[in-house]
Design a protein that fits this description.
Elements (H helix, E strand, L loop, with lengths): L4 E8 L2 E12 L5 E8 L2 E6 L2 E5 L4 E2 L2 E2 L10 E3 L10 H7 L5 E4 L1 H7 L3 E2 L5 E5 L2 E8 L15 E8 L2 E5 L17 E5 L8 H11 L3 E5 L17 E2 L6
Parallel strand pairs: 5-8, 8-9, 9-10, 14-15, 15-16, 16-17
Antiparallel strand pairs: 1-2, 2-3, 3-4, 4-5, 6-7, 11-12, 12-13, 13-14
Amino acid sequence: MITCLLAVLGLTAMGQNNLYEMDEFNTPGGKTLTFHALVHASIRLQYDGKEIYIDPVTRQGGKTIDYAAMPKANYILITHEHGDHFDKAAIQQLTGDKTRLVTNPRCAQLYGSGEVMANGDMLQLANDIMIEAVPAYNISEGRTQFHPKGRDNGYILNIDGLRIYIAGDTEDIPEMANIKGVDIAFLPCNQPYTMTPEQLVKAARTIRPKVLFPYHFGHTNLSAVAAQLEGIDVRIRHYE
């Protein structure tokens, strides 16, 4: 259950004149979880003194992010090998003595290290943090070469009872019907690589998260999405 929802703005390591949007939630255990919308598919999570980064990249869409100015990561999760998700320099900047890097098999090969998770694997990162790797792939004719089935990961994080689905680069695949009880979902929307707005709506109706963050959307027009998802809190942040 989400006990508190709050959207705020805060100064960030991009510089004094730039802001990241932040969304703050209370977990069922009464702790605070904060999401920072960095760029595109790059997300920073803060929870109980821990730093979690999803697909951190240094440059994307004309933006540059200085990870050296951010706290070192406790956990870094990488979904797949494409340059807008997998950035060796960003990983190196965020890596400290206690950092655990979790990747799909291909990224671990490319980086030379990392804890490997394949689709269906589960990993207990801490007493109150569990992650599950789930499928992420293309299904439309002419798109399957972008993200072939079985190679890439999405992730479901259970953080102190709060269930978060980070889909990675995927279309509205059949396996989404098995994803239940999601509090917060991040679903991609930029054709032809991930979902069209229509597919995004279909996926959200299947998963039924309490809060939906469309992400990885580039120049896709998302203006009609929220009106089609009654009962879901749709939040558009700077995940172009």
